[in-house]
Write a structure and sequence with these properties.
This is DUF541 domain-containing protein. Helices cover 27% and strands 41% of the residues. With 215 residues, the chain is α+β, with helices and mostly antiparallel strands. The chain folds into two domains: 2-24 and 133-180 and 201-214, Protein of unknown function (DUF541), domain 1 (Translation Initiation Factor IF3), CATH 3.30.110.170; 27-129, Alpha-Beta Plaits (2-Layer Sandwich). The strands form two sheets. It has a four-stranded antiparallel sheet. The chain has a four-stranded antiparallel sheet with strand order 4-5-3-6.
């Protein structure tokens, strides 16, 4: 995108530059846990606590440090059926979700299988990230600036005008959804968790709006 505008002291050329950088993920965040249901709350809660404790123990035995396991959600909810327009109590549901951080992207499938074998029955998200994220974002910004400079140069040459050596204004454009999240499961059943989980690549995007004086 480019626009010519009359500036307070001169004329300006406005350009939008975009940059894209890819990176290989090296970290995995998995959110999984247990859901228990029944008519007696104490029994349901006890059942859930036993299963979660078994899952945590298995994760630790699989080499996950305790500080890499944290509770992200704990819910106790009454459940109802609606029959002929009337609300009828069905029982209780207890949900306990754990977020597990892996320092690799190769063990996600094995880890989920181990959790399932020890009582986990729900996964809500698998996210891949990289320790080089900050570097990739900076590189995307640099690429966006270069893209804007190239566009401005082409437009100026086509118009037969000269640009100021230094931009009079530079502004980063915030992009929605720019964070690198590659896989999201919505309360996915873990019965099929033995399938390989592929991390792919992470994409970092940046956009810069630059104004040049021209004459």
């Amino acid at each position: 995108m480019a626009q010519l505008k009359e500036h307070a002291c001169d004329f300006t050329l406005e350009v939008l530059g975009e940059g894209v950088v890819t990176a290989v993920p090296d970290r995995t965040l998995i959110t999984l846990g247990t859901v228990s249901e029944g008519v007696d709350l104490i029994s349901v809660q006890s059942d859930n606590a036993i299963k979660v404790a078994a899952v945590i123990e298995e994760l630790e035995q699989s080499g996950i440090a305790r500080e890499s396991i944290k509770t992200t959600q704990f819910l106790m909810e009454p459940q109802y059926d609606y029959i002929d327009g009337k609300q009828e109590f069905r029982g209780y549901r207890v949900t306990h979700l754990l977020q597990v951080t892996l320092d690799n992207v190769t063990e996600a499938g094995r880890l989920i299988d181990a959790a399932v074998a020890n009582g986990a029955n729900i996964v809500t998200s698998i996210e891949f990230d990289t320790s080089e994220g900050a570097k990739a974002k900076r590189e995307a910004l640099i690429a966006a600036v270069r893209d804007a400079e190239a566009k401005a140069t082409v437009i100026a040459q086509a118009l037969g005008v000269s640009l100021s050596a230094v931009p009079c204004k530079v502004e980063e454009v915030v992009l929605s959804g720019a964070e690198p999240v590659f896989f999201k499961a919505s309360a996915m059943s873990l019965e099929s968790a033995t399938s390989p989980i592929e991390p792919g690549q992470l994409t970092f995007r940046a956009a810069i709006r630059i104004w040049y004086l021209y004459g």
